[in-house]
TrEMBL record:
Signal peptide bounds: 1-28
Family of the protein in this entry: Belongs to the outer membrane factor (OMF) (TC 1.B.17) family.
Localisation: Cell membrane
Source organism, top-level taxon: Bacteria
GO MF annotation, one: efflux transmembrane transporter activity
Major place of residence: membrane
Stretch list, region Disordered: 108-127
Residue stretches in coiled coil: 186-244
Annotated Polar residues bias: 115-127
GO cellular component, one term: plasma membrane
Native species: Cephaloticoccus primus
Protein name as it appears in the record: Multidrug transporter
Amino acid sequence: MPAKPSNARVGAALLVAALLGSAGCSLAPKYQRPAAPVAESYPEATGPISPAVELSWQQFFGGDARLRAIIALALENNRDLHAAALNVERVRALYRIQRAATFPDIAATGDGTRRQTPASLSPTGERSIDSTYQVGLSIPAYELDFFGRVASLRDTALQQYLATEQAHRSAHIALISAVARQYLNLLATEERLDLAQQILAAAERSYALNHQSFEAGIASEIDLRTAEAQREAVRASVAEIEQARDLAYNALVLLVGAPLPATLPAAGTLASQEALIEDLPAGLPSELLTRRPDILAAEHNLRAANANIGAARAAFFPSVRLTAFGGSASPELSDLFEGGTKAWTFAPSIALPIFAGGRNRAQLDVAKLAQRIEITNYEKAIQTAFREVADALAVAKTIGTQVDAQAARVTAATRRYELSQARYRAGVDSYLAVLLAQQELFTAQQQLVAARLARLSNLTGLYAALGGGWDDSSETPAQTAARLSAAR
């Protein structure tokens, strides 16, 4: 005749069965990615359709060693990027806390009690002292997740962590773009300053010649004062551009998070930058969904809100909790680990919501509204990304023509200035013609620098708008999700 199972074995079997059955069904709605509320192609897209931007920032800015070194310093020292990285670690820790709720807590426990019963309350009429000691392992109040509440909260925490990680990547890309643009702005300001100083030197020479001619009685005082006014105007412009250069440098240092070392490679010019940075094919708007970190973050937030609906729905169903203990108990401490002292308890409890004053319904409504808000945020992120790319493409369509036209204007203005000087020295024209030609040349040169800066800044912005700038050797969002799911 087979042996009758002991109560201890029955309790252990019930415990294992309860734990295995705790992976209940999910009440979260099935996730469906909303349709992208944008056109299937960019309005100004030209050239071949390309997949995602495959160039890393080291390759994209590969021709300028100084810029690469400055970007590397910024990625290492920028305080905003540090804060974003720390926030990722904080949210990852919160996810680990929530994930731990899917497993039972097992604690080693030990306790002892001694109780004295007075003779007046003792059934024997004598004073007695009783002792109880026990030691073992316990599971304190573990929730059996039959309706997926804990799993939904875990999924919510996971998606929030992934969203925060994408926010960090977005900050990473934005920092690279900001540093590159500010670096280009500093180069442009230095070129403007160099041009202004050349014009100032010419104005100084013109004033000196006019002063000599006036002293000799050849030139009029009008020509002298005109040359003097032009010299002072250019001198004021030089001071203004010097101020702009210093402010541009300070802004770059703030982005980098540290002073620029003197050992950096020599800086180039805007003209050399144009030869180093190539045009980018835009690809399709649908590709933004998989490479723009702000869009990926918005989708993770949407997935988190979707999972949170499951947790809110589970609040309408019974909550089952389990408390268990297994170990040894004895009235004598010395006999605690002797045979025959085994003890166990198995105490499931269930709570069925009957009346909560509408709280559960309100929480479900809040969860559903939060999901709708995240859908709106997701669609807005896509539209914003689409506009950024479309705007950059619109600028790229005409900025090359502007640069070429400004370069031709500088050539013509330079020749006009040379001719006006020759005619003035020959006594054909007044100094006013020289002044006008000089002003035109100065303006044309400054606007050529501005056009070149606009082209390079726009190309840098397009690179960032397409999701370029993240190191491809880093873990992708899909790899991160797979790793964390496998670790559950």
